[in-house]
Amino acid sequence: MVGSVNVTIRVDEETKREFDVFCENVGMNITTALNMYIKAVLRTRQLPFLVTDIKSLSQKEARMELKQAFKEAQEDSIKNGTDKMTMEEIDAEISAYRQEKRKNNAKSRA
Questions:
Q1: Which tens digits make up the pLDDT trace of 70-88?
Q2: Which of 14, 44, 98, 109 is least enclosed by beta carbons within 10 angstroms?
Q3: SS3 94
Q4: Neighbour-count burial of 22, counting CB atoms closer than 10 A to its CB (0-12 exposed, 13-18 middle, 19+ buried)
């Protein structure tokens, strides 16, 4: 396994508190939730929600949209069976995908 590094982010206190509660309610901590998010983005090569012009949304509407997007991502992970995967299993799946992609790219160049 590759070594880990610290990543520092800034969020307002209320958002962090709400996210702490959410994470606790689903049986994880913020680190696990953010690692899952990062791995999902890397696996799919896209953000798991639609990015819109937040200037056209109120702060409350934007928060509601993000909460809905997170809920949908969570439901998708349950549907496709990745909700119970460990970080090691996710890493292995990503590595296998990348290896297969490299192999397919090499074949198409030949």
A1: 888 888 888 888 888 888 8
A2: 109
A3: helix
A4: middle
